UniProtKB/TrEMBL annotation:
Keyword field contains Lyase: no
Domain FAS1: residue ranges: 41-171, 255-383
Species this protein is from: Panicum virgatum (Blackwell switchgrass)
Function: May be a cell surface adhesion protein.
Signal peptide stretch: 1-17
Protein name stated in the entry: FAS1 domain-containing protein
Gene Ontology CC annotations of this record: extracellular region
Keywords: Glycoprotein, Proteoglycan, Repeat, Secreted, Signal
Record-linked Pfam families: Fasciclin
Compositional bias annotation for Low complexity: 408-419
Length: 460
């Protein structure tokens, strides 16, 4: 009976032991190393670094949270620390680079920089010239040539677990230098253009969707009248805001070519003089064309400009108002305008002088602008056409009907273009195409040079 009880008791003890082995044992935290352990010894090279003259390096090590990583490295074996002078880390260091290292988001770069100064082995100096050219591994993972480190105080601190050598300047690994260059480049820190406040639709009380970006070379979104500068009696036009004015076209260069063409064509020197010298319209035309606008200029010849009185040009802003009425914010050629008036009979074109419009109709096989005594015929077609600026020569100065009233002294008497009669009638030759036309006098060439010089001064 006793043997049986003893047998049952042994079986129960074995089952209990097996059950305890199957249960998971709670994990105990690793025991901290004692104070006398090599990694935290008071005679450690890390303690000596914190108490040495290299205070700037010690401060950066603490800011970079590298004390634990260095203790682990010392626990695995001896280390060599290359410690730069305090001046090399403070006064001699580039302020932008120091600011980059101390930014919280660049903590990895600061750690790589400091670990680049720690070698996981004891290196005694001085070394031979052949050994100095060899590369040594660093805790940063990038090799280092001792020849690149200008050692000024070899064996400045010697401890059983490592040695500290004083060096002249800071050593920057390639990865940190590339990160700093990327941060400093304009692509990484480009300024954000200011944007306007969000607009609310008063009908739906919801935010309006931003307009899609305009493609390259697209027509301007604003009408040409909103892009024009104020009159001469008002303050100058404000500087364009961010994103305004695509400037895909060389407007000033095109206006310069257009004025030079007027001078070489002959008979339009007065108009060129007013555009360049008497007003600043040439510069404004160049700005409008640069921003993507197109213009058609109805150019009165010198005979028509000579019929203007002094009173009409002496009033402030009068030359600008007269020429604005001769500028159409469209690109029209002689053929397109003639086809339009042949098809519709009468066409009204907007001008840069709001709210006045100029009326065109077909008359005697040509295009006639205006009505009554203030009308003008298009008799010099396509003097200049480049896709952005079109110049059509007319034989009279146009004035708005509300102002001339049919009694303006500038209005020339009604004139009719020569009608084509018979099949043998010869078409009218364009100005400048006559083979018997005399050469330009030297005075006209000199006059053109003066006008072009004035336009160059305005554009600059």
């Amino acid at each position: 009976m006793g043997l049986r009880a003893l047998f049952l008791l042994s079986l129960a003890a074995a089952a209990l032991a097996a059950e305890q082995q199957q249960q998971p044992q709670p994990q105990r935290p690793p025991a901290l190393p004692p104070a006398g352990a090599p990694g935290v010894s008071s005679n450690s090279v890390l303690v000596a670094l914190l108490d040495s003259r290299y205070t700037e390096l010690a401060e950066l090590v603490e800011k970079a949270l590298l004390l634990q990583a260095l203790e682990d490295a010392v626990g695995r074996g001896s280390v060599t620390i290359l410690a730069p002078r305090n001046e090399a880390l403070d006064r001699d260091l580039d302020p932008d680079f120091r600011r980059f290292l101390l930014e919280p988001r660049n903590l990895r770069a600061l750690q790589s920089l400091l670990l680049f100064h720690v070698l996981p082995a004891r290196v005694r100096l001085p070394v031979s010239s052949s050994s100095s050219l060899l590369t040594h591994p660093t805790l940063a993972g990038e090799p280092l040539e001792l020849a690149a480190a200008a050692v000024t105080r070899p064996d400045a601190v010697v401890r059983p677990d490592g040695v500290i050598h004083g060096i002249e300047c800071l050593l920057v690994p390639r990865s940190v230098q590339e990160a700093f260059n990327r941060r400093r480049s304009l692509a990484a820190i480009s300024a954000v253009l200011p944007t306007g406040a969000p607009e609310v639709d008063p009908r739906t009380h919801r935010l309006k969707k931003p307009a899609p970006p305009a493609p390259l070379g697209a027509a301007p979104a604003l009408p040409v009248w909103d892009a024009m500068a104020p009159g001469p009696s008002i303050a100058p036009a404000p500087a364009p805001g961010p994103g305004s004015g695509k400037h895909h076209f060389d407007g000033h260069g095109q206006v310069k070519d257009f004025i030079q063409t007027l001078l070489l064509y002959g008979g339009y020197n007065e108009l060129a003089d007013i555009l360049v010298n008497l007003t600043s319209l040439a510069t404004e035309m160049g700005r409008l064309v640069s921003e993507g606008y197109v213009l058609t200029v109805l150019a009165p010849n010198d005979e028509a400009m000579a019929r203007l009185t002094t009173d009409q040009l002496s009033e402030p802003g009068s030359p600008e108002d007269i020429l604005y009425y001769h500028m159409i914010p469209e690109y029209q050629t002689e053929e397109s305008m003639y086809n339009a008036v042949r098809r519709f009979g009468k066409v009204r074109y907007d001008t840069l002088r709001l709210p006045h419009k100029v009326t065109a109709r077909e008359a005697d096989g040509s295009v006639k602008f205006g009505a009554g005594e203030g009308s003008a015929y298009l008799f010099d077609p396509d003097i200049y056409t480049d896709g952005r600026i079109s110049v059509q020569g007319i034989d009279a100065v146009l004035l708005p009907p509300a102002e001339d009233g049919g009694k303006s002294p500038a209005a020339s008497p009604a004139r009719r273009a020569p009608a084509v009669t018979g099949a043998t009638a010869q078409p009218k030759l364009r100005r400048g195409q006559c083979p018997n036309r005399p050469a330009f006098p030297s005075t006209a060439i000199e006059f053109g040079a003066v006008i072009l010089a004035g336009f160059a001064l305005q554009s600059t």
